[in-house]
Amino acid sequence: MTLRRTLFILLVALGVGACGGQASPPQQSLATETLASPTASPTEMPPTPAPPLYTQPDADIDARVDDLLSRMTLAEKIGQMTLIEKNSISPDEVRELAIGGVLSGGGGYPKDENSPEAWARMVEAYQQAALETRLGIPILYGVDAVHGHNNVYGATIFPHNVGLGAANDAELVARIGRATAVEMAATGIYWNYAPGVMVPQDIRWGRTYEGYAERPEHVAALASAFVRGLQSPDIAPPNLVMSTPKHYLGDGGTAWGTGDSGYQIDQGDTQVDEATMRALHLPPYQAAIEAGAKVIMASYSSWNGEKLHASLYWLTDVLKGELGFDGFVVSDWGAIDQISPDYYEAVVTAINAGIDMNMVPYDARRFITTLTQAVEAGDVPEARIDDAVRRILRVKFHMGLFEHPMAHAELLSEVGSAAHHALAREAAAKSAVLLKNEGNVLPLSKDVGHLFVGGLAADNMGIQAGGWTIEWQGKTGDIIPGTTILEGIQAAVSPQTVVEYNKFGNFQGDPSADDAVCIAVVGESPYAEGRGDSADLRLPTKEIRTLNRMEEACARLVVVLVSGRPLIVTDHIDAWDAFVAAWLPGSEGAGVADVLFGERPFVGRLPYTWPRSVEQVPLGRSDEPPLFPYGFGLTTEGE
Ligand code: GLC
């Protein structure tokens, strides 16, 4: 090799451009450098400019963050702090405003078609626009995949957290987290606004079912399992699907009658001392951060009158200071606006308190303009902006988003796969809690002569899936693929068994016959958030009428309750031979049939205290014993 050639390679290796003396980032490693013809002189070979440090996958993450931040304008920084819902922004605007995040709220499926492929196309359009910005920073696209990738038609819908709390099986929850991440990665979505790590103290709250349990250690164990499963490194290399424990802090401890947004208790005021706030509501966040969570969503609720979105103490001093949280805090949907009717004041207060990314979610320009004005006026220090953007960028690098921003199309075949449905069925079975079994009527024989099935929840995918399914509020009817509880029952019994179903319990046959058994599958209609706040915890009137009818007519009556929380059944339960809480089982109602017929044992235990009356709610209000205590659950004889 000529001396000149050797000299040139040496210069390149030292990262000194052939045409200039200033050091530049080291070129590609010599091993991969394209060796030019040995006869060419250095002047004939202008050096390829070194790629910016932040684009180099093997560079230290904090060095990448520093490099990228140093290149950003204020507008690009504030763009990164802006999270907009997809109907309120186009890909062109994402590019123009250098937006950092886009989300689908509940039911935010593509307008033209709700399929995994259509989702991937929709997300890809936004991501491509982001990659075409000056610095090519990919967006985070977020969804509430709180029980599977639940806005996507065809995705596997797992039991809501209340059922997983009853199953109390961390390994199962981790497997559900992983399956959820795979189905999300198939659509190019790597940000999940889950798990809910609330510790509900008042089951009148419409979000009780999003919580695992009433006790912090129970929630912490399952929340960290979900985070580990969702963020499993082997999910879709190099991507990592990021969790978002929510809603920080104390969302499950609000007082009835203090709700916001017109709700009774949702988004209300948590009126407890600091010691109680820390003891009850903080442990799940400590566990989730320990498990790898790098984004936390702030709560709409307040603590003794101060909105959490405005709390420097809880968002910055405790979470980022005391707990050392180095990820970023995202606001809830339009929650910043609740701080003050003066939008400028609301934005300044929230960002200074420690909100790093604002789920605006509609008017990007208004937020960007307002925050820009606040920085220029000195009301929000640029150091606070840099801290927020540093946190956001650190997470994006950590997730592998720069290296692989698009969908993993190879995983599309796993969306709604038989394996994931089998997992959903296992989870539905393990969630069921046996609360009464007079005369060991359960498990039922598969050779029973006549089965009379009643109740609206028996044959209704939407009811058994609950809220946050396809639509924000969920929807009754045949809204997702899977098996209803009735279909599970029909598949379980022998060909000789006669199964009669009538949703109101009006039967042709004789349900009092010796060889007859009745199963009433009754439940709540789907709801989400504050729309589910319930003053009386009563079953729907139609379901009560069906129960009355079947209690009268049936010789043997098994009741299965499909609900997001314990309901008041005290006046009815004496007329039942057996009682099962199935919660919100999701895609595979067959899992409930599995425990009714002994295919699987009953293993569920109550994650929430079951009150005799609504006067025993919230926890601690009454000294009288509840109908069933936290942790209660029977097994069937011989198990
Ligand atoms: C909602 C919920 C929150 C959800 C967010 C985005 O209002 O409070 O749990 O993640 O908006 O859908």
UniProtKB/TrEMBL annotation:
Domain Glycoside hydrolase family 3 N-terminal, first and last residues per copy: 73-395
GO biological process: glucan catabolic process
Annotated ranges, domain Glycoside hydrolase family 3 C-terminal: 433-635
Catalytically driven reaction(s): Hydrolysis of terminal, non-reducing beta-D-glucosyl residues with release of beta-D-glucose
Region of interest: Disordered: 22-58
Record field: compositional bias (Polar residues): 24-35
An annotated Gene Ontology molecular function: beta-glucosidase activity
Extent of the signal sequence: 1-18
InterPro entries xref list: Cellulose_Degrad_GH3 (IPR051915), GH (IPR017853), Glyco_hydro_3_AS (IPR019800), Glyco_hydro_3_C (IPR002772), Glyco_hydro_3_C_sf (IPR036881), Glyco_hydro_3_N (IPR001764), Glyco_hydro_3_N_sf (IPR036962)
Compositionally biased spans, kind Pro residues: 44-54
Pfam families per UniProt: Glyco_hydro_3 (PF00933), Glyco_hydro_3_C (PF01915)
SUPFAM superfamilies referenced in this protein's UniProt entry, alphabetically: (Trans)glycosidases (SSF51445), Beta-D-glucan exohydrolase, C-terminal domain (SSF52279)
Keywords: Glycosidase, Hydrolase, Signal
EC number: 3.2.1.21
Family from the record: Belongs to the glycosyl hydrolase 3 family.
Name of the molecule in the record: beta-glucosidase
Organism: Ardenticatena maritima
Lineage per the UniProt record: Bacteria, Bacillati, Chloroflexota, Ardenticatenia, Ardenticatenales
Gene (name only): bglX
